[in-house]
Amino acid sequence: MNDQILVDCRNVNVHFGAHHVLKHVNLTIRPGETVGLVGESGSGKTTLGRAILGIGPVSSGEIVFDGENIAGVPPRARQGQAAIQAVFQDPYSSLNPSMMIEDILTEPIVARGLASRADASRQVRKLLDQVALPSDAAERFAREFSGGQRQRIAIARALALSPRLIVCDEPVSALDLSTQSRVMDLFIEIQDRTGVAYLFVSHDLAAVRHISHRVAVMRFGEIVEFGECDQVTARPAHDYTKRLLLAAPVADPARQAERRAAFRALAMTA
Ligand SMILES: Nc1ncnc2c1ncn2[C@@H]1O[C@H](COP(=O)(O)OP(=O)(O)OP(=O)(O)O)[C@@H](O)[C@H]1O
Fold first, then answer.
1. Domain locations in the chain?
2. Residue whose CA is at the smallest distance from ligand 1 atom 9
3. How many A from CA of 16 to the centre of ligand 1?
4. pLDDT, tens digit, for every residue of 216-261?
5. Between 210 and 53, where is the model more confident?
6. Cα 41 to ligand 1 centroid, rounded to whole Å
7. Closest Cα to residue 106, out of 167, 159, 163?
């Protein structure tokens, strides 16, 4: 891991009317790094992801990407307009069911003028291969695929633009457990191969822990803890992080009972 910074959120605030949703958020992402962003529903994780993507507002503060302040600048107006991509939670609504996979994968490249349709089509097989889908998937329609396969297609669509960062907003929470772990492994493999960075947004600390180099914990729009994954999960500094850890699912029932007892003890002292 290097000391360079790819994304630097500096004192970012977002207000929706009178509601101060993001409060003085400072967060960095290094090239090739996964930063997990955890917190309960409504804490502001998606709002931060959308601000970084340029599809959500920023009331004040800076988001510096590659040395340029991109806060409030929509994706098309950004210099490296394709450099930040997204994979969202629901692969059923994020892909047009009646579009052919080849068109889903080539359209973002062609629309940005990054390659001709013929050149983009030549990349399709490689993209499908990167997400472990067979090349004949190109001629099929999105509606023919399962949730896990659709999420692989959504990942391939993000990769088509050779991004430096992918904002992954709850990308496995709509999938069943065994599919979740395969898609998580795919994210890791892709990062090892391409060096892409991830902001991995999830309410599930167990998932985040599996994939992240560093973890940021958000509560009521504030980052209450941010550090190396091992540090945050083994020696959390904030009680809120401790509670999230205790609520994180574990496979072993004895361990689960131990966690519940510890959680009750902590809740009584909180
Ligand atoms: N466009 C909007 N207009 C008004 N309020 C909004 C808007 N978008 C989000 N909010 C509010 O901002 C707060 C944070 O929402 P956000 O979706 O960022 O949280 P989250 O941590 O991602 O939650 P979840 O895990 O449920 O997606 C919520 O109270 C939400 O109602």
1. 238-269
2. 47
3. 9
4. 999 999 999 999 999 999 999 999 999 998 887 654 455 545 544 6
5. 53
6. 8
7. 159
